[in-house]
Amino acid sequence: MSELRVRADLAEVPAYKQGRSADAGDDRVIYKISSNENPYAPLPSVVDAVADALAGINRYPESAASALTARLAGRFGVAGEHLVFGAGSVEIVSQLMRATAGPGDEVLFAWRSFEAYPMLARAAGAVPVQVPLTADHRHDLPAMLAAITDRTRLVIVCNPNNPTGTTIGDAELRAFIDAVPPHLPVLIDEAYLHFNQRADSPAGIEYFRAYPNVVVAHTFSKAYGLAGVRVGYAIAPTTLAAAMRKVSVPFGVTSLAQVSAIASLDAEPELQERVDALVAERERVVSALTAAGWQLPETQTNFLWFPLGEHTADAMGVFDAHGLVVRGFPGEGLRATIAETEANDRLIAAATELRERELG
Ligand SMILES: *Cc1c(COP(=O)(O)O)cnc(C)c1O
């Protein structure tokens, strides 16, 4: 049998593992808390906007996304040329890697962090350089600085970090970016920005304004609850923004994605109430788990990280028995999303059981 020829270096690309869905055929109510999705159904105003736009789906979307560009340019006080759109901010990460790095070049980021980073770096032909988190599950910024070489083409800072939920403070991020050579792009991935209530939190947009090499990535998937339509964006220096557009997939951001994003910006106060409710639920769960004896890394996201090491696989079985599908990283830990109240109650019960069974 002859093998069809594909790029040999793709053998290095890890496959993306989607958060597991509930098993079909299981008649219990199962909550999928494995993908950091927003548990709320879309707002009626967003559904209406999408319904209106359905009549036009025989046409290509407007690739410049000019209405959405104008909205975001106004909100952030930046020129439209700095905004770049993608099919989710995962495509923004991909564009940035492919715009900056090629074969033999290095893309530097913390590890463990967002699962897509190594995969997308390899797909760009580049070498992912993964700098271990500190013992308390945070970015080790001094070690990241020390890992910069003359082959480094892009540095990624995920704040807050997925999957550990940990954050970076303003002073430490400023010291870090001050020390990065100004010709080296730094991406601040702020997918969980809305959930971050840390008092001294650095705002990526301020860094974009202050530094010539900072790119910020935002998504409509998490706080805005639009994971299914796929829309995210970067705020990037002009040169990078233009290069990112060159490597983007033409018409990658659908018309439905564009109208949903605009309708969501129109409904921000309502969406903020949902974010506030999820943050309150997060605090409720964290308090209950602290009372049960857990000392989890402080999360500023819509998920919790359980650093369970070798107990991870057994612990997943316990969550499963409680009707919860979580995201496990065997040998390291598991991530559980703050979701519906009932799912959160079960999360408390399952995690309390882990303590009783001495699995955490
Ligand atoms: C969810 C997530 C994204 C982007 O998700 P999209 O659905 O592609 O917008 C980006 N970065 C991190 C760290 C995430 O967790």
UniProtKB/TrEMBL annotation:
Belongs to the class-II pyridoxal-phosphate-dependent aminotransferase family. Pfam families: Aminotran_1_2 (PF00155). The modification N6-(pyridoxal phosphate)lysine is found at K222. Homodimer. It catalyses: an aromatic L-alpha-amino acid + 2-oxoglutarate = an aromatic oxo-acid + L-glutamate. The keyword Transport does not apply. GO terms for molecular function: aromatic-amino-acid transaminase activity; histidinol-phosphate transaminase activity; pyridoxal phosphate binding. Its cofactor is pyridoxal 5'-phosphate. Residues 32-341 form the Aminotransferase class I/classII large domain. It comes from Microbacterium album. PROSITE patterns: AA_TRANSFER_CLASS_2. Aminotransferase that catalyzes the conversion of aromatic amino acids and 2-oxoglutarate into corresponding aromatic oxo acids and L-glutamate. This is Aromatic amino acid aminotransferase. It comes from the Bacteria. Its EC number is 2.6.1.57. GO terms for biological process: L-histidine biosynthetic process.
